[in-house]
Amino acid sequence: MPTESANSLDSVAVVAQLLDELAAAPAPMGVSEIARALNQSKARIHRNLVSLKNFGLIDQDQATEKYRLGWKLFQLGERAGVQSNIRALAAPYLKLLCETTGQSSLLSIPLNGEALVIAAVDNDSNVSITVKPGNRPLPHCSAQGRIALAYATDTQRERLLGGTLAAPTPHSLVDTHAIGLRLQKIHEQLLEDAPNEALTGINVVAAPILRSEKDLIGIVAIVGSIQNIPHSPVGAMADMVRGCAAALSTLFGCDAYEQRGITIPPEVRRLMSGGK
Fold first, then answer.
1. What global pTM score does this model have?
2. Are 116 and 219 in contact (CB under 8 A)?
3. Over 70: is that where the pLDDT of 84 sits?
């Protein structure tokens, strides 16, 4: 292994051990204590502590100058728990969505104002259109991306909409004023689509999974040919997308869909009640 790679991995190992040591400690620890516990030099431990503190992962007591785990780690842990939980909870709904609409279904999570696809169920037809997990749809010209933007912070939106916006097709939405209006509409209708925007001939219909009116924790979507998913879909297809998102939102304690009078289709209700 090249020396640089070996050193990088060694540094990661030290950071991991350092965090484990702080997590196990009954009280904040000083540099010397941590160095002895990990059999590392005080200088190296101090450098890592300073870096972790700068990233908000650990805190330092101003009076004792000792270190403890930071609030950001709690937030990351909570988010990891939600993401792991949402993938498992969403799995049967993605399967149902695929079976009832005939289109591939997707699950995304918000990440720094963007959407990250973490799960997909492909349809069984000879030609299957899907999006692979790990994909990040463009924030401004994709259904999942605009939903993530709608619930992002002002700082995140400014960063993602600043500068020249990419236009993969002539239909891609790049006007920031028009995008702003779409984001408002998402909050009202809890639904978004993006026909021909990311790729000509393809449409995506998506709906937010909410833990509260302002807290987006996931996005349910279907993707397919514009022939099968028309612009501004209404009826059973849109109802199923929103219905699955509504059911998952309910599992996380949010009644935003019910408050807007959006009903959950019978197929989804049966799944919610264990197939009864």
1. 0.75
2. no
3. no
Q: Tell me the pLDDT tens digit for each residue of 117-148.
A: 999 999 877 677 888 888 999 999 999 999 99
* Residue range 17-59, pLDDT digits in tens: 899 888 878 899 999 999 998 889 999 999 999 999 998 899 9
Q: Radius of gyration over alpha carbons of the chain, in Å?
A: 23
* Contact by Cβ (8 Å): 190, 256: yes
**CB-CB contact of 152 with 143 (8 Å):** no
- Residue 29 carries which DSSP code? B
Select from 227, 178, 177 the least CA-distant residue to 200.
227
Q: Give the number of other CB atoms < 10 A from CB of residue 234.
A: 9
φ, ψ at 223 (rounded to 5°): -135, 140
Q: What are phi and psi of 99, to 5 degrees?
A: -70, -40
Dihedral over alpha carbons 199, 176, 257, 152 (to 10 degrees): 100
Tell me if 237 sits within 8 A of 229, measured CB to CB: yes
